[in-house]
Design a protein that fits this description.
CATH superfamily: Peptidase S8/S53 domain
Radius of gyration: 19 Å
Number of strands: 22
CATH topology: Rossmann fold
Helix content: 25-40%
Shape: globular
Largest sheet: 8 strands, mixed
Strand content: 15-25%
Length: 452
């Protein structure tokens, strides 16, 4: 199952109506067109904004919430960390994307100036798996990945403005099944072998069932094993179609629960999606819930490939014998878009709105970078550490579900995939829940464990 942060949301008239990757909200009766693999959903048909919109502006014009960096900084309680000098400094966040963006350096600089963020210590771009083809702004695959790259870089930087950023671009687009993954694995192994980063964020994925065989998927795990051996944390977005995901044709959606890799890999921390309801200042107006709106839902479920890892033994009643996802969740909802800035499409230079678990993964990468800084060392594979955190170190998500549908496939049939409900403790819609950054970073760095 692919991560769907990269899905496109198209605005149609009237302005309050949206379509995701070709199907207007649930049940509109049209099959989604194939989209590039990144896991983001973007308004791509509204006029480009020359200013960063406020929440009030988005509600008035689109009927949806949207947020700027300072609002999520408040919502996740980042201020005490900043005051203590915990901002990811001395650490490097690795962003991996097919193709990358030709304007990312300029776009990040404008984004930072707009929102009063410092420049990162460095933004380095490498292509260890081979040169990326020349950028074509009329190629929707390339522009989709450029948007993904921009989202990943800008919002990882929001959460850890003191961390260096290493953007790793690969020359083949990742799609369902194996395509694109050999290059991604090669690039990630290069980063790990050369000690170039501390946490790797992956806002992409492919449905487990789209691989030719179980072995063809397992053969792609070398970078994750390498990362675990070198204490490098690896993250994966859990997907944007709730308990289901795309079929191999990249258009139809599986009519039953499925999961996506690499999010489903036990060596990867799976980051799911929540919906935040904030006012213009960033104050919460309601508790966070599982992301599930008219345009997508946070991925989650059990793996068809991986057995339950030892660190999930304490939640065996929920996951059964299989690996369950997500592990933790952060902001991803489309009714809660975040603002980002790009200039790689002529005529569309400016501020845009984006959502999806591709947002959640880089946000959490910033959290990990700060935890590494606070600990004075790499924390490495987070699975065992997350599930040992005490309840006071996490914020439980108890409302919502990740059911998805109705949607209509190319067979003309309409389906709804029943997902999983949030509830007290771990669940397959939100994982362990979400976090207060100050409390969570300190607990993770200090190894706060045990139930209370």
């Amino acid at each position: 199952m692919r991560n769907f942060s990269r899905l496109r949301v198209t605005l149609v008239l009237p302005a309050c109506l949206l379509a995701v990757a070709g199907f207007p909200a649930y049940g509109a009766g049209t099959a989604p067109a194939a989209v590039p693999r990144p896991l983001h959903i973007e308004f791509d048909k509204i006029p480009t904004l020359t200013f960063p919109p406020t929440t009030a502006y988005c509600l008035a014009n689109y009927g949806l919430h949207c947020y700027q960096p300072f609002q999520l900084e408040r919502a996740y309680n980042l201020k005490p960390l900043r005051e203590a000098g915990i901002d990811g400094r001395g650490r490097t966040i690795v962003i991996v994307d097919s193709f990358g963006s030709p304007t990312i350096e300029h776009d990040l600089q404008v984004f930072d100036q707009t929102f009063g963020l410092p420049d990162p210590p460095s933004l380095t771009i490498i292509q260890p798996a081979g040169p990326v083809p020349p950028f074509d702004p009329t190629n929707s695959d390339m522009t989709g990945w450029a948007a993904e790259t921009t989202l990943d870089v800008e919002w990882a930087h929001v959460f850890a403005p003191g961390a260096a950023i290493l953007l790793v671009e690969t020359p083949v687009s990742e799609t369902e099944g194996v395509q694109g993954f050999p290059e991604i694995v090669k690039a990630e192994n290069y980063v790990i072998d050369h000690d170039l980063g501390d946490v790797i964020s992956q806002s992409f994925g492919a449905t487990e069932e789209t691989f030719p065989s179980k072995d063809s998927l397992l053969d792609l795990r070398s970078a994750f094993k390498n990362a675990a051996a070198h204490k490098v944390t690896v993250l994966g977005a859990s997907g944007d179609l709730g308990a289901t995901d795309y079929e191999l044709n990249g258009s139809d959606i599986y009519p039953m629960p499925v999961n996506s890799w690499p999010s489903s890999d036990p060596l990867v921390t799976s980051v799911g999606g929540t919906m935040l309801t904030l006012d213009d200042s960033g104050k919460r107006l309601a508790p966070d819930v599982v992301w599930n709106d008219a345009y997508g839902a946070g991925g989650g479920g059990v793996s068809a490939v991986f057995h339950r890892p030892e660190f999930q033994d304490r939640v065996r009643k929920v996951v059964g014998p299989d690996r369950g996802t997500p592990d933790i969740s952060m902001s991803a909802a489309c009714d809660g878009f975040v603002v980002f800035y790009y200039t790689f499409i002529p005529g569309r230079e400016g501020y845009h709105l984006v959502c999806g678990t591709s947002e959640a993964s880089p946000e959490f990468a910033g959290i990990v970078a700060m935890a590494d800084q606070a600990a004075g060392r790499r924390l490495g594979h987070l699975g065992p550490k997350l599930y040992e955190l005490s309840k006071r170190s996490l914020i439980d998500i108890t409302q919502g579900n990740n059911s998805f549908g109705p949607f209509t496939n190319s067979d003309g049939k309409t389906y709804t995939v029943t997902g999983y409900d949030a509830g007290p403790g771990y669940d397959l819609a939100s994982g362990l829940g979400t976090l207060d950054a100050t409390r969570f970073v300190r607990a993770l760095a200090e190894g706060d464990g045990g139930d209370d």
